[in-house]
Amino acid sequence: MLYLTILFLLFTGASLLSDVQVVVVNVNAFAFSSHSSNQPSFRISRNQRRDNEISGLQTTTATATLLECVDDLLQRECKDTWIIPTETEILERVHKQHASDCQTAVSSPLALDSIRSQEYGDENNYKKVRTIPHEWIVSRKGRKKIAVQSLTPVLNVTEIAILQDAVDTILEQRRVEEGVSASTKSRFTYQFKGNSEVHAADFAKLSDGRAITVINNLLVERLYPLVREAFPNDVTSSHKMFVYDSLMIRYNASASDHKSAGQPLHRDLGVISVNVMLNDGFEGGGTYFDNQADGELVANNDQACLMPIKPSGGPGCCIAHFSNERHAGAGTTSGVRDILVFFLSLDELTPQLSNAHLKQTRSACDDRLQQDQENVSSKEKILCRIRHQRLAIEMLPNDGEAYLYLGSALLDFAKQVSDGLERVDVLNHAIQSLQHASTLTPNDARIYNNWGIALARLEEEEKEEVQWGENEERRGKGGLTKTNVQQTYQRGLKLLLQAREAGCAVDDDIDALSLNFGLYLSNQDAFADACAILEHPVSRWRKEPTSVCNQQVSPDWSEFHQQ
């Protein structure tokens, strides 16, 4: 049984890297009322870049050296190719995307933030807004602010009923027009079947106009003021906010293919995300944040700190958090849960917004490189990813996710390097990037999956019959190879199990990490341990809760190819 499992892993390519995607620079303030035709200067010198990054609180000498090595790699590998976009071209694309987002907001039926924060003191404007009492929810040991919750409702019972009626109307129209399943079909990136949603802008299509009026009053009179007061360093007096996107999401546990209805761990686009609770009478649900545990694994007797967060005031109240705070919609296990979410952005392209756009490298690189598909190599696609993530780090030097994506891209690039010593150098850079990511975002399990892969590959390189000679010091720079591969995988697995215990849909992530971990153990001839680790993914694919180690029949692998 285990032999067949290992053969399958080898045949399908062995390592499953955690998926890389996502989100982005201080360019120009972008006014709602006008389109600036002046293109900003994007060129940043290497000395200026180094000064910017060294000023980051978490940037160490080793990390600065790593980034210089990445700069050298890009300069060396990209100098003779025109296919890979330059830094200037990448940043111009980000600027244009943000300008497009602002123009879309202007034409949207959703209200803009028309009152800057310094104007709230004006007596006439003060009458238009309500001060919303709120408090911060902090992490397990109080080290980190997780989210703000309103202490009083931002929507009353009547307003909630108007929104729910509007959603029912739109979903019924969709069902009639598109078929029986259309009303429960997801159109949102992170949704599962059984969830349904309606974009708030669609409320404007309803003839009575009540729902869109509720939404716009909510934004102008309550949410925009609340966000300004709660996040004064991020939404400053010079900024105006707008809605990047907004939806009302319905989690229906009975309609879900899964045992519960929710969302996987992810980050949002925008600057601040707001989640308004619209009903009770369901079980499960809430928002789970990676950082709730303060970067620590939590004992079984202390699981309360990992409970998904819901507004303590009940329906009508909201929570607000940084959009780049990694979180999940915990599964609704019984009943129906309705929430209204807003992804708020700014008229100015801030470092956070630029960082977010830059991390969305897959689509950006594919769009650019498909112009000359016949001549584009895998190596050039990876270099495009590396350049994007390098710029993302430049925008936010303390963003652990950008270091995760950089390390993952370097890990892929190592496969393109034919020289053994150079390949080891690139692997060491990947490991160092992933190691630094773990200090910035210690509860992101994706880091440990990819870190384990990188360490295992480096071990294999060191087993090769390479004449190290005077270059022996290149092995295990900074003691990186001394890191225990098993401990790295185990931490990632424990974090995922912790998230699953909180109600998050992480089974696919557990499977990916378990496959990589199991393959590594089998290569170390630790077959019993490998069998135990592989039990979870194999039993899922077979849809049988029995032990893999006792099975004598080959599993049905067809479901793996569908995931």
Any chance you could write out the topology, listing elements then pairs?
Layout: H1 2-11, H2 46-54, H3 61-78, H4 87-107, H5 123-126, E1 134-138, E2 145-150, H6 157-178, E3 195-199, H7 210-230, E4 241-252, E5 272-277, E6 283-284, E7 287-289, E8 318-322, E9 327-329, E10 332-334, E11 336-346, H8 351-358, H9 361-369, H10 378-395, H11 400-414, H12 420-440, H13 445-463, H14 485-501, H15 507-523, H16 527-542, H17 558-562
Antiparallel strand pairs: 1-2, 2-8, 3-4, 4-11, 5-8, 5-11, 6-10, 7-9
Helix pairs in contact: 3-10, 3-12, 4-8, 6-7, 8-10, 9-10, 10-11, 11-12, 11-13, 12-13, 13-14, 13-15, 14-15, 15-16
Gross morphology = globular
String of helices and strands:
HHHHHEEHEHEEEEEEEEHHHHHHHHHH
Structural class: alpha+beta
Strand share of the residues?
Answer: 5-15%
Taking all Cα atoms into account, the compactness measure Rg is: 25 Å
Number of domains: 2
The residue fraction in helices comes out at 40-55%
- Could you report the average pLDDT, rounded to the nearest whole number? 79
What is the helix tally?
17
| Count of distinct strands | 11
The fold-level CATH name of the largest domain is: Jelly Rolls
The first-to-last residue Cα distance is 22 Å
The neighbouring-strand order within the major sheet is 1-2-8-5-11-4-3
What is the makeup of the main sheet? 7 strands, antiparallel
| The CATH fourth-level homologous superfamily of the largest domain | q2cbj1_9rhob like domain
Low-confidence residue ranges:
6-14, 19-58, 116-127, 182-190, 475-481, 544-563
* The CATH class of the largest domain: Mainly Beta
CATH architecture field of the largest domain: Sandwich
